[in-house]
Amino acid sequence: MIDAPASLPASDIVSEATARRTRGFGGWLLRRVATSIVVLLAVSLLVFLATAVLPGDAARAQLGPRAPEAQVEALRESMGLNRPLVERYGAWLLDLLGGDAGSSIIAKRPVTAMLATPATNSLILGCVTMVLLVPLTLALGLWSGLRANGMADSIIGVLVTICYAVPMFIVATMLIYVFALRLRWLPAVSLLPAGESPLQAAEILILPVVTLLLGSSAYLVRIVRARTIAVLDADFVEAARLRGVSTSRLLLRHMLPSVLPPVIQVMVLYAASLVGGVVIVEAVFGYPGLGQELLRAVGSRDIPVVQAIAMLAATICVCGNLLADLLVIALSPRLQAEVWAS
Amino acid sequence: MTPPLNRRTLIAGSAAALTLTALNTVQAQDASPVAGQASGSLRAAFVGNGSTETLDPADPSSNLAWARILSVYEPLATIRDGAIAMVLAESITPNADGSVWSIRLRKGVTFHSGRPLTTADVLATFTAHPSPYAASYFPVITTVSAADSVIVSETEIDLALSTPMGSFIDFLPSIMVIPADATLESLQTAVDGTGPFMLEQFEPGNIASYRRNPTYWGPAEQQPLLDTLDLVQLNDSAARLNALLAGQIDVACGLGVAEGAQLEATSGFSLLPAGHSTKYTPGIVLRTDRPPFDNPEVRNAVRMAIDRKAVLDTLGMGRGRITADTFVVDGLYSSPNLTPAPYDPDKARMIVEAAGLKGTPVDILTSSVDAGLVELATLFSESLTTIGFDATLEVAPAESFWLNMGSLADATAKSMVSGVNSYLEYASFSYLPGAVFNLSGYDNADVTALIGEANAATNFAERQKIAHQVQVILSTDGPDIVPVALFSNHGIRDGVSGIQTDLSGQFPTFGRAWIAGAS
Fold first, then answer.
1. Contact residues for A292 (Cβ-Cβ < 8 A; gap 6+)
2. Complex ipTM value
3. Which of A122, A310, B92, B425 is the most buried (most CB within 10 A)?
4. Are B399 and A61 a contacting pair at CB < 8 A?
5. In chain B, which residues have their Cβ closer than 8 Å to the Cβ of A286?
6. pLDDT confidence bin for A266, thresholds 50/70/90
7. C-beta atoms of A117 and B51 within 8 A
């Protein structure tokens, strides 16, 4: 005869469940971080190969096609271009992991020092844009979805379509004309005093950020709107309505958790595409950021700088995706259960 | 001895003979305030090379870099009104064969650090320049022998050349005197010059801020007037125009053709008037060592295909004049007797067809790095198409155009501007086989010999005579297509006065600029 196991006390059951959840989440996070690292490694390989297989080589590009071969060879040697590709990749990656992105071929200075200020400036521009983009697109998308086919929806639809259809360059030019040259409310270009952060001269951020918002929000508003309409038709929303739940509570407690997860994923992917917009916006507004550095580096085959900017962009995208996943899990009980059970 | 071709040398191809601006000047307006009186703060925008830029005076790889250099450094001598004029030197005299040059320094000149300028600084500038670019930009310094040069006193020095060079003095305007104790790091990150402004802050790719040098050595009429000066980077011509119109800057340098026209139509703003503005010569350089332009007749056909009047009207809005394919216009040794090729596209087409080159592809590399370059390249492309070539235009980013020497040297035709004010210097750097700025592959034994003779001649008149001969040959045989010389579109707001031009005429300087009403 086998004795039945004694029942566990309630507190033990709770702590065991918590421990299981923690283990489940820890395991998921570990796998997700590992995947991110693999992705970054793959990106690093692609970036390295893409820049390594460009026509000609950096030494020849620097010295010109008529430079004596001996001179080119000497420079090639000093730049380490004669080493096997795998060896060069390994050395570059190790240096990169150690925070050393090499030296600019043009400026002959450390890339990290060269790019620190422009990268910070661009990150500020991107982050401010994202901080405003999320609530703006959510508000407009939800409002539009809740009033689908109504006047507000139509107006928002027309406006976002216009913003989507007009190139960012034109949007920027129009904003400059109206707010800087006509009304004189805002600066036309982003002149930044030496040593100051854009956050200390916030007025220089306004037009670039608004340009990026107008150029980026249209697609996201349409996504939020479509998701909102879909959720509105869901049974649980109908049930909540029948229970007499107030509109605000319905929106915040019932609809948003369902609308947000897919929207966040799209937003993060869309944020990656902001990089292209940032390059354009920085050029139009003369914003001292990475965009102008990228243009210069690509044009002058300053490969270490191109590699560093590409890896920085990739790292931000991968980290953004990881953050988005965490947010989605935090918002979705079903996903939480899946993660904890994993 | 020729330094290697590299990206650093290119801009000097258009600015090698650049010199101190504060002295070769045309006042845009008069009635300037008294030195020391509050004269305002001025902010000017230029095209720059982003974070790659340093303060190294031997690394002037952009217009912005030149503007910075000219604000804080000075050479021994400059060129003014077609003749050499002393700056930091009181006198510069060669011996009989030009192998030793005796230099007597002006007394009372101090660096911004307060240390007096001495002949040790001059010797170091020529024989121990810490910049890796010095020999590329200023190859003449490699001819100075440190061992054979003699410091006579703190103000007198005999510079000995390894090869006698009668034209040595013509090359001095480009070379800024640096302190003897300068290191590469100090040159790149700080400034200790003798010029009218002192550096306050510098952020590569963004801004350099200066304040007036209160102990500037010059006489009262050369004392700087502005309290502060900001030189900022704005690479897009439209951005420079917008910044000017919005009141963020006082001077927008090198506006494009369209932006210049727009500014002229806007009240409260103007372009520096023709004759008072800096001049520049946008042109095209052809590769002469490979088809289709290895044939001098075909090069002349190209000259005949250019409607110079149309180019002048389109690019210069009438602010300039037609030229005979030379980058050095109205400069030292410039010949006044050159005749532009007549506009005759029909004859040009026949020459091209007779040479069997109809339909031959020609790549033209250009950039908006300087005003009018893209427009000229476009007109040039159309002209080539008209006479039977298959021309394609590639517009490179302004941020990297002067940096990518490989592409520039390789292109069959490429845009170029020049700020050189000494024909002989330009010829030495651009037409000798293997010369640092010879992006055309040009190699003509007669021209090479003549340039050598001219540089060796100790007599100015002799050098001038030979230089004129060279120009006559190159006006029909050379690689350059330079249809016009123009005045730059430097936009200013009302109240800005006293902007001057440097020796080359290409760069505006602010040593005597002031803001009306600032005091």
1. A118, A282, A283, B50, B205, B235, B399
2. 0.77
3. A122
4. no
5. 45, 233-236, 239, 243
6. confident
7. yes
